[in-house]
Amino acid sequence: AESVALFAPPVGPDARTLERLECLRLAIEAHRKVSIDYLDLKEVASTRVVRPLCCFYWGAVWTFAGWCEKRQDFRTFRIDRIRRLAMRDEVFRDEPGRSLADLMRGLELTAST
Hints:
Layout lengths: L14 H16 L1 E8 L5 E13 L4 E7 L4 E6 L3 E10 L8 H13 L1
Antiparallel strand pairs: 1-2, 1-5, 2-3, 3-4
C-alpha cells in the first residue's frame, strides 16, 4: 500500500445530510421511530413511519435501513431523497423478524443467491 499514490479529496456529506444522519443516529440509539416524507427515484412521494436500524454509505450516497410500518417489511431510504425527517416520541423494542440482526441476515441471504 505504501507504493501506491492514492489521493482522496476532502469531500464529505453536505450540512443537510449531516443533520439527518445525526437525527438518525440519535433515533437508532434511543430506539425511537422516525417519520419521513420521502421522494423515491420515480419521483413518487410518500410519508412513512420507520424504525431506524442502521445507516450505510455506498460511496456516492448515504442510506438508512429500518422496519417500515407502512410496508410491514425492511426498507432502505436514500438520505438525499428525504424531504422531512422527524424523530417521534414512540419508542420501539427489538421484535423477532424486525431487528437489525434480522435485516443483516436478510442481506446475507440476498447476497448469496
